[in-house]
Amino acid sequence: MDTDAQQKLADLAARSEKERKRFYARRPKRAADVVAAVVAKRGYAASRAAGELDRVWRAAAGKVLGGDALAAQTRVEGLSRGRLDVVVANHVVMQEINFHRPRLLAEAQAAVPSARIASIRFKVGRTH
């Protein structure tokens, strides 16, 4: 084969590869991938996870604090980088709960090991 024919074959192969990549780049996306992207973008999964964390937190706080009276005055705001953010009703509740912080942390870690809770931060705010 002469060099001109080899060059034409190489150009044809390169063009074919380029067309193949362009074709597959424009393929329709799977519905599951689109739904997962929307859920992640809108934060629906995070709000559901926060609700689950709030339920687990109330159970752990009720167990450690000896009842639901103090636990009812708290709510989980979120989990970020291993820190569980908990909103409490007032400073008196926060001071009382701070005394039990190590036991609350241990109980929360045992209740949800997959969350990898490393610390708890309390702040005063609206709990309902």
Arithmetic mean pLDDT: 84
Number of helices: 6
The separation of the N and C termini measures 81 Å
Helix and strand element order: HHHHEEHHE
Total E-strand runs: 3
- What helical percentage do the residues reach? 55-70%
User: Which structural class do the helices and strands define?
Assistant: alpha+beta
**Tell me, what's the shape?**
rod-shaped
The fraction of residues assigned to DSSP E strands is: 5-15%
Low-confidence stretches: none
Biggest β-sheet strands, sense, barrel:
3 strands, mixed
Largest sheet, spatial ordering of strands: 1-2-3
Based on CA atoms alone, the radius of gyration comes out at 27 Å
Report a brief summary of the structure.
The chain is of the alpha+beta class and 128 residues long.
Structure keywords:
128 residues, rod-shaped, alpha+beta, 6 helices, 3 strands, 3-stranded mixed β-sheet
Task: Explain what the structure shows.
14% of the residues are buried. Helix 3 (44-65) crosses helix 6 (101-111). The protein has a three-stranded mixed beta sheet. The longest helix is centred in the first third of the chain and has 23 residues, at 3-25. It is α+β, with helices and mostly antiparallel strands. It starts with a helix and ends with a strand. The protein has six helices and three strands. It has helices at residues 3-25, 31-42, 44-65, 68-71, 91-99, 101-111, and strands at 74-80, 83-88, 119-124. The model has no long low-confidence stretch (mean pLDDT 84).
